[in-house]
Fold this sequence. Notes:
Blueprint: E1 6-7, E2 12-13, H1 14-17, H2 23-28, H3 30-56, H4 61-72, H5 75-80, H6 91-104, E3 108-110, E4 115-117, H7 119-122
Antiparallel strand pairs: 1-2, 3-4
Amino acid sequence: VSSAGAVGMMQVNLRVWRGLYDVERLKWEVAYNARAGAQILLRYLEGPGLDVAKQTGNPDYLAWASYAVYNAGPAGAKRFLRKSGGLKPGPAERKLLSHYQGFADGGSADLEQCVVTPPAALDPVL
């Protein structure tokens, strides 16, 4: 259990989600925790993430803002945007955007290094 009260691979917060998910299963069942985390993330994509994407006019911010909420709670979407409407990403959001953009550009995951390999690096030399 993290200092924030989150458990498992998806770091589901027990205090926030205890009424919707089985706490013991979140702690001990990897697949259950992963499904719960995916459902929570979908909720944030369809709610605050979509709101930020519409507000900024940038669909790429959907994933970024959704992650900010997943990571920091409902206030994360508000902190994601400055009062001026500009971005105010933290270190975790910057890392996520880097990965997101790498995949959007056709890159692939390097799980050992936790980076996205650009597509040009994947093409064989002829």
